[in-house]
Write a structure and sequence with these properties.
The two termini are about 20 Å apart. The strands form two sheets. Strands 1-2 form a two-stranded antiparallel ribbon. Helices cover about 60% and strands about 0% of the residues. α15 crosses α26 and α16 packs across α20. The protein has three domains: about 35 residues; about 180 residues, no CATH class; about 200 residues, MetI-like (MetI-like fold, Orthogonal Bundle), CATH 1.10.3720. It is built from 26 helices and four strands.
Length: about 575
């Protein structure tokens, strides 16, 4: 029978009260869902949008926000690498606007640049692999996942990879080599077999994951500007030059250059001998050698992608953009900004999916290819539920049906165990299990919590409410105690048993500190221990993604038990 009759519902005050109740319920639902929505949005974050608090991530609705995340991943979270490649001075990834189609800086050089890339086989040392490393976000970008997949397909097993590349990785999750920074003197090719494997893989990566190294951009961004400032006028005053902007400042192939001032030649010599990797320097050509002066040695020659592009333009004058004189070739830039703006527009849907799922893929890759966390957790949870559904009902049945003289005192003693938090009992339990030699076993995880005073208390109360006539009738028909327990008590106690099973699963699944203390061997670590290890080495986005994935099994188990719980609540008493 409803609380409000049909006549009562027609009252304005009643309708107002009902509307108020629905409004309160809706406000409560929003208050619960809003933090969850923020957490879902936060699970897609990287460094570019780390400080945003939005229910809908901005990169899902804004191409410019996606462009900024793309550039952050393309340059492996290094703003200096971006400014070197693009010859810019952006203060952050968030400050880089998405140019309109065809309006990017140096876009007029794009057709010639595309032909240059097709005609010129560049060495791996000239290529930087982006979407490979996320040191701050801690995620596994697309290129890193593809590189590991390439190694698994090539070598099959981790042992075979270690033997072939002389490494000692203990899990596929750890297969990683820091990309060599070939602009700097300390990075040399062929340092390790794994670095050679990465260099060989670069040529097979898609274009939207690669950029060309620019020693000229390195020269301007990290050598000249820190010395002379960003204002081109100060550089001109120090060198006696008349450059209208930094775009016309170049790194000549040799020194002394006929058109260079003594100050420019001094900078060239200092930069190439102290700051630049020697692999960009090549010995003088035979023609240079034959015409050298009486000096002890001829000056070395630079060979960089910037100079190779200009040399290619000299051989292909038809590729020169219209309305530009041939003299523009001397300062022709690598139009990488415009190049990647075009590649970005071609891959917008795929990039959105990548950044939406990248942190989740990181967590799954870590769990699937690192240790036995998932298997250990499944075994632990199953055993914990089975033991809880066996030990606790037997104890409660004995207290309910046994007519024990001191059943109340026994139940009170069992309830006293709830007064001691787990943090207090962990050390005595650890010492006891160590004496029995049970550490790093499933028995150590399950046995200390096999009997629960709270579960026995709930079950005893439920068993006491079952009709006694049912037991007496069964006994008259010759049923034994096991039949009474299994076929009557357990069958009628499905709702409360679901509560016990759900509680046992939740405690076992969420067990972290006790599991880490009792099982210190990584081979016995459960899912929560592995997730803790992951969270110590990743950023907030991956942490939130791991928490969401970790919450899914508990939610699914609760939904599976929900129907049984509700059915126990609404069953008519007379039935």
């Amino acid at each position: 029978m409803p609380l409000l009759s049909k006549v009562g519902r027609k009252s304005f005050r009643t309708r107002l009260l009902v509307a108020l109740l629905y409004a309160l319920l809706l406000a409560g639902a929003v208050a619960m869902l809003y933090p969850l929505g923020l957490m879902l949005a936060g699970s897609t974050q990287s460094v570019a949008d780390l400080h945003e608090n939005r229910l809908v991530p901005r990169f899902l609705v804004s191409d410019e926000a996606l462009w900024q995340k793309y550039l952050e991943a393309l340059f492996n979270e290094s703003l200096d690498a971006l400014n070197i490649a693009f010859r810019t001075d952006y203060p952050s990834f968030n400050a880089i606007p998405l140019p309109p189609p065809g309006a990017a800086p140096h876009a007029e050089w794009l057709p010639a640049y595309h032909r240059f890339l097709q005609d010129t086989p560049l060495p791996p040392t000239s290529i930087t692999l982006g979407h490979y490393w996320a040191p701050q976000a801690g995620a596994f970008p697309a290129a890193l996942r593809a590189f590991r997949r390439h190694l698994r397909e090539k070598y099959g097993t981790l042992d075979a990879l270690n033997a072939a590349l002389r490494t000692d990785f203990d899990a596929w999750y750890n297969v990683f080599v820091q990309p060599p920074a070939y602009l700097f003197p300390h990075a040399l090719p062929h340092a390790t077999p794994l670095a050679d494997a990465l260099d060989a893989y670069k040529s097979t990566a898609p274009d939207w994951q690669k950029t060309l190294l620019s020693p000229e951009g390195f020269y301007i961004k990290l050598y000249l500007k820190p010395r002379y400032g960003r204002d081109i006028a100060s550089y001109n005053a120090a060198h006696g030059t008349t450059h209208p902007s930094w775009d016309t400042v170049t790194l000549p192939p040799t020194c002394p250059d006929p058109s260079a001032t003594p100050e420019e030649s001094a900078d060239w010599q200092d930069f190439t001998t102290r700051a630049l990797n020697p692999l960009w320097l090549s010995p003088p050509s035979p023609s240079q050698e034959s015409h050298r002066s009486q000096e002890s040695h001829s000056p070395p020659t630079l060979s960089t992608p910037d100079l190779q592009f200009r040399a290619w333009l000299l051989l292909h004058p038809d590729a020169l953009p219209q309305n530009l004189p041939p003299s523009a070739i001397a300062t022709a830039p690598l139009p990488q900004f415009a190049h990647h703006a075009d590649l970005f527009r071609q891959h917008i849907p795929a990039l959105r999916r990548e950044f939406l799922l990248r942190n989740y893929r990181t967590v799954l890759d870590y769990l699937l290819f690192h240790g036995r966390g998932i298997l250990n957790t499944v075994i632990y949870c199953i055993l914990a539920v089975l033991v809880a559904l066996l030990v606790n009902p037997l104890a409660a049945y004995a207290l309910s049906r046994g007519n024990l003289r001191h059943s109340t005192q026994i139940l009170f003693f069992l309830m006293l165990t709830m007064a001691f938090p787990h943090m207090v009992t962990q050390i005595p339990v650890f010492l006891l299990l160590r004496e029995f030699g049970l550490l790093n076993t499933f028995a150590a995880l399950i046995l200390p919590g096999a009997a629960s005073g709270y579960s026995i208390f709930l079950l005893k109360g439920f068993f006491d409410s079952l009709p006694r006539d049912l037991y007496e009738s069964a006994q008259l028909d010759g049923a034994g105690e096991w039949t009474l327990f299994w076929h009557i008590t357990m069958r009628l106690s499905t709702p409360i048993l679901s509560v016990i099973a759900l509680q046992a699963f939740t405690l076992a699944y969420a067990n972290f500190m006790y599991a880490l203390l009792i099982c210190q061997s990584p081979k016995m670590w459960t899912l929560m221990v592995w997730l803790y290890q992951l969270q110590q080495r990743t950023g907030p986005g991956v942490v939130q993604a791991s928490l969401i994935l970790a919450a899914l099994p508990t939610l699914l188990v609760f939904l599976a038990c929900q129907r049984v719980l509700l059915r126990g609540i609404v069953v008519p008493i007379e039935k």
